[in-house]
Amino acid sequence: MSENKKVRVAIIGVGNCASALIQGVEFYKNAKNDERVPGLMHVDLGGYHISDIEFSAAFDVVDTKVGKDLSEAIYAFPNNTYRFADVPKLGIPVHRGMTHDGLGKYLSQIVKKAPGPTDDIIKILQDTNTDVVVNFMPVGSEMATKWYVEQVLDAGCGFVNAIPVFIASSDYWGKRFSEKGLPIIGDDIKSQVGATILHRVLTSLFVDRGVRLDHTYQLNFGGNTDFMNMLERERLQSKKISKTGAVTSMLPYTLPEEDIHVGPSDYVPWLTDRKFCHIKMEGTTFGNVPLNLEAKLEVWDSPNSAGVIIDAVRCCKLALDRGLSGPLLAPSSYFMKTPPEQYEDSIARDKTNAFIQAK
């Protein structure tokens, strides 16, 4: 890979996840190739260092962010994630995006939409030589995501869909990316160690050790705008499907719907971007003897997925370099909760490393 090759990344939705991603690229820009960075597969992934990621464009609809330099917008209200890096001025303005269903009922009560029309997304992506677009819109932004996907396809960019709207895992959209000769990784980002990955691993442990899982729940609450958005239960549907499927796909049998509950449960403002997860699992062991397990996890929600996104955008760029198109099955299976094909996480990791090392 030549020294001057870069990964030009545009962001839709300048919220906490975008903040953690941009801070992360700054924080680790001088990491040595042989260094182990928590949350990254490799400092140098397929010839692309973390510092090779350049932010090319950003889109939002909130008046505290639109028109600001991206380096300022990531700290603007209502963002409230952990600040672990000081990002210098990037010279990237936040453009006015399309709203559609991107702002929920509760979020609309605390933020104002920026004035003016939607900017020309396709032209901006092309003029900035964007390689990969990352979707960080709020949960439930179904129509807005599909509208942006059309712009991305027309602009000729790769796509990383970090939210639970089913694009990469949809036959229709997967085919559209294949036809355009463009790669996509999706859907719904897995955190480094989050509620879903913990629940999946514990479920796999039950299966591997021959414990029958009878009942389980995963309850999550936090204080960021995602949890505020999810107070609208209708915005929760795709998130619930995504998180539930990520867990049940580890089981070799069907768990009745009434025996599993996975999903966000409440919004606690003072927690800011912290997220609490409670998992309970009830199973049957040898001799029909019961076994009960409870786990509690506390994380800063957005930094927990930023490293995964750094790996995902670099894998998407590798696919562009290699002329690969459509859903990238191996990276999607490792980085996302609802990939087109589900594998156990250790298998998904091996497949993704094989993808990175392929020529």
What does it look like?
This protein is of the alpha/beta class and 359 residues long. Helix content is 33%, strand content 22%. The protein has helices spanning 16-27, 70-73, 121-127, 142-155, 171-180, 195-208, 225-229, 237-248, 303-322, 329-335, 345-357; strands at residues 7-12, 44-45, 48-49, 53-60, 94-96, 132-135, 158-161, 183-186, 212-222, 260-267, 274-285, 289-300, 326-327. It has a seven-stranded parallel β-sheet, sandwiched between helices. It has a four-stranded mixed β-sheet with strand order 10-9-11-12. α2 (70-73) links the parallel β4 (53-60) and β5. α3 crosses α4 and α10 (329-335) packs across α11. The model has no long low-confidence stretch (mean pLDDT 95).
- Unreliable parts: none
Structural class: alpha/beta
* Proportion of residues in helical segments: 25-40%
Q: How many H/I helical runs?
A: 11
Q: Major sheet: order of its strands?
A: 5-4-1-6-7-8-13
Q: How much strand?
A: 15-25%
Main beta-sheet strand count, sense and barrel state: 7 strands, parallel
Which H/E pattern describes the elements? EHEEEHEHEHEHEHEHHEEEHEHH
- Computed over alpha carbons, the radius of gyration is 20 Å
Q: How far apart lie the N and C ends?
A: 11 Å
Q: Could you report the average pLDDT, rounded to the nearest whole number?
A: 95
